[in-house]
Amino acid sequence: MFGKTRFPHHRRPQQVRRTLPLALAAILAGICAAPSAKAASNDNNVEWNGLFHDQGPLFDNHVEPTASQSVTLTFRTFKGDVTGVNIKYYDSADSQFHVVAMHWASNDPTGVFDYWQGTIPASGSEKYYRFQVTDGTATAWYNAAGITSSEPSSGDFFIVPGFTTPSWMKNGVMYQIFPDRFYNGNTGNDVSNGQYTYSGCATEKHAWGSSVYANVSGCNTAVFFGGDLAGVDQKLGYIKNTLGANIIYLNPIFLSPSNHKYDTEDYMTVDPAFGSNSTLQTLSADIHSTSNGPKGYLILDGVFNHTGDTHKWFDRYNGWTSITGAYESQSSPYYGYYTFQSWPNTYSAFFGFSSMPKLDYGASGSAVRNAIYGSSTSVVKTYLKPPYSIDGWRLDAAQYLDAGGGNGSDAVNHQIMAELRSAVKSVNANADILGEFWGNAGPWTDNGTEWDGAMNYDGFTQPVSEWITGQDYSGNSASIPVSQFDSWLHGTRANYPTNVQQVMSNFLSSHDITRFGNRAGGDIWKTYLALFFQMTYVGTPTIYYGDEYGMQGGADPDNRRTFDWTVGTSTNSAVALAHKLIAIRNAYPALRTGSFMTLLTDDTHKLYAYGRFDASNRIAVALNNDSTSHSITVPVWQLSMANGSTVTELISGTQYTVQNGAVTLTVNGHYGAILAQ
């Protein structure tokens, strides 16, 4: 099988975050303690609030090792507090645990902490490790899930030799566009009223900014506004410069009768309402160009679990005169591309929608596998190669790809995903594979053989929404305190290797859920706060078009309103803040690939502080989720900021001096501060 199912005693629980609160509460109590609590000695008591390790550059010399590179790990304790530290790692090659004794290496610059080091030998096998920390008769265990007094059975750190995720994804900011609703760059390709009818619904052309709901009940997918690829191209200056994003993810653009295009009619043809294949080539070249801003990257939506019923392989309505589709004849060359229970009207479909018949991937080497990704002329490879040269695929409904009409998420699905990864990387080793999964995507990411990352509903979108707006991403009441928010984040980070964490897509909204602005009740200050967190957290910040100015919208299709270009300007306060935060993120690698450390959680005043740091910079982020301003004392001694040193708040430019191991400042309600040195 795949993942750690081979080692059931070691497998991570699906919802690690729910198992952590007691351990994390103990950690946080120590982290938030006053500097005087730092006194340490060999007294048969391990001081938990001095312990730290993650796979940031100060603590792991090879986060993405080759099979020939050993991995030297660094572990932090209070100075003089412990008598020994061991690395205990599980090696999948021999299914055994191994122990490496760490040695004292150095002190931190402030002399508060000891650094211990040990090396795990090089090999090509996947490994998982934890730390055993001893002070005489006392022992503490430390792994990605937290600190415990007894040895954990899950939540270890990963070492996956030979697995790399794209550096441009780690270091970029993504902008997601629903093409019909972003900008109309060519009115000549607009869909007109009654241009065609599909599933009993005639097309409706609505005026920009008007209702997304159809005039005819049940026909919302037939509503068009005229947004297109030329419009995206014409607004690259806004995306790249006014905002500062450099990765563009487009919802489906291929021929389809609907406005959402998730019911593909032909993978090899750009929908005429969006332009042409030549338009796509021009857009891709312009995104990659540096003449209009920083070099950009393009990710397309790959809808490979199902086609539309108008696809030439299926051809339910006899639209393809030169081809006999599976619905038309059991003798069709494409009959085996689908799974019929009773031909022609009963067949496997995505969530039972008859307009989206499910592809049957069959066995390895099947015609469907070759058509989608296996052959040199496959869909996946065609668009990765010139003249399109896209930079990655977002895989829609990726868990469901299967054979025989199955529901996916099984051995066949993992085989398909491994083959797809090989196909993608054979064309462009630096291309990104972004899977859609709404829970713990570890089964597809943790071995380095399938996806690079996933859409982070579980580890970002949901907890951020519940903490800031008091609603889940569907708009239901669901409020959590900051301590639970931090625990949730910690647990979901532990689900993934660090290089996967760094390319997870962190978005406030998507085309499938209510808008963040809607959940925030139209309070733009909550968008400000969310932007602070989004641009300073681990992962790839992903802005669903309009979220940068607090666009509102309910459930689908209301979450797909047209972009308001009177608001999308540098004079808008939220857009200006997003631009500044993105510039700060771009200026400090610590905010992209540095360590993450919780510094403070205050449920009473709704305050949160955390550190991002590497060898060059120490950064503390302070967030206030209350409606009023609060003074917050941030324990920056945890980041080895020395007393008397100066830190600069990057939004205001105000400078502060570290006193008694802390920086005290006032943060406005639903706002943040970024302290850097």
TrEMBL record:
Gene3D superfamilies: Glycosidases, Golgi alpha-mannosidase II, Immunoglobulins
SUPFAM superfamilies: (Trans)glycosidases, E set domains, Glycosyl hydrolase domain
Acyltransferase recorded as keyword: no
Example of a GO biological process term: carbohydrate metabolic process
Keywords: Glycosidase, Hydrolase, Signal
Pfam families in alphabetical order: Alpha-amylase, Alpha-amylase_N
Protein name: Neopullulanase
